[in-house]
């Protein structure tokens, strides 16, 4: 029997801050099946509130940047028990900085990713591009092995002009440079579906991140940089994709995906 499941991805900009702003109440209220968060900013989950480690009805799984405290990090809260958990992606860039967590479920493989930001320096931009390269190589291998793939997270790049409020002003800004956007093209070329655009191909003024310093959210001067992608073999299972702009608590808002598995 098929069952509709709900998945959420949200860059919370610090899990402790999110907890103070009502993250657990939000989790209990909506009872999503799987919630992926990025930028947890914790190097040791055991130092967190016990309820955050095991919310009622959920198991939690964490990948942390152990070499740099208060940096990066991802976690998944799941009401469905995975068959396998993966944190180590070999001796390469994917295993550094606590940026990827993979859970293998019976019907699909889920990867929660916090892609690097390239705006700080040329070195970090190059790091980001290398990360895209290694990640694409990895998911192509996964796909070839027969896995049905969902990957989500803060991709840190707006794909097309429709995906940010001011494309012309940002053509040379990291997050919208052609060299970065080309990697999102490659995801699509290699058979991965941007699920929001699958359901809303022409919908504009829909963003997932706003600059807090300029109070850009009030004016909706934003960027769509948070995504759910799936492999094409899940296309007929897709039931809906949303951007939850009214959900507060971070400089990002959550994005959602519904699947009939």
Automatic annotation (TrEMBL):
InterPro entries: AP_endonuc_1, AP_endonuclease_F1_CS, Endo/exonu/phosph_ase_sf, Endo/exonuclease/phosphatase. Residues 8-252 form the Endonuclease/exonuclease/phosphatase domain. The active site is at 114, 154 (proton donor/acceptor), 252 (proton acceptor). Keywords: Hydrolase, Magnesium, Manganese, Metal-binding. Mg(2+) binds at residues 11, 39, 154, 156, 251-252. Transmembrane segments: none annotated. It comes from the Bacteria. GO terms for biological process: base-excision repair. Its cofactor is Mn(2+); Mg(2+). Probably binds two magnesium or manganese ions per subunit. GO terms for molecular function: DNA binding; DNA-(apurinic or apyrimidinic site) endonuclease activity; double-stranded DNA 3'-5' DNA exonuclease activity; metal ion binding; phosphoric diester hydrolase activity. Belongs to the DNA repair enzymes AP/ExoA family. This is Exodeoxyribonuclease III.
């Amino acid at each position: 029997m098929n069952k509709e499941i709900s998945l959420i991805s949200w860059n919370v900009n610090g899990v402790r801050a999110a907890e103070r702003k009502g993250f657990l109440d939000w989790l209990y209220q909506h009872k999503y099946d799987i919630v992926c968060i990025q930028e947890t900013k914790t190097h040791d989950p055991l130092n967190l509130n016990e309820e955050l480690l095991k919310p009622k009805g959920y198991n939690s799984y964490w990948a942390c940047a152990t070499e740099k405290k208060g940096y990066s990090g991802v976690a998944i809260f799941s009401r469905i028990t995975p068959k396998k958990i993966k944190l180590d992606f070999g001796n390469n860039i994917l295993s550094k900085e606590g940026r990827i967590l993979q859970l293998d479920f019976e019907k699909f493989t889920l990867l929660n990713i916090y892609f690097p930001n390239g705006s700080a320096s040329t070195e970090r931009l190059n790091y980001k591009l290398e990360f895209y390269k290694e990640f694409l190589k990895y998911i192509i291998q996964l796909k070839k092995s027969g896995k049905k793939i969902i990957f989500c997270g803060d991709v840190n790049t707006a794909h097309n002009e429709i995906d940010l409020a001011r494309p012309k002003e940002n053509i040379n800004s990291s997050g919208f440079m052609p060299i970065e956007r080309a990697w999102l093209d490659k995801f699509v070329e290699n058979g991965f579906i941007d699920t929001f655009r699958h359901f809303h191909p022409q919908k504009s003024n829909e963003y997932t991140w706003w600059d807090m310093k300029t109070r850009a959210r009030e004016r909706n001067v934003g960027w769509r940089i948070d995504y759910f992608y799936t492999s094409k073999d899940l296309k007929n299972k897709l039931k809906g994709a949303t951007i939850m702009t009214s959900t507060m608590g971070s400089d990002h808002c959550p994005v959602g995906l519904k699947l009939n598995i």
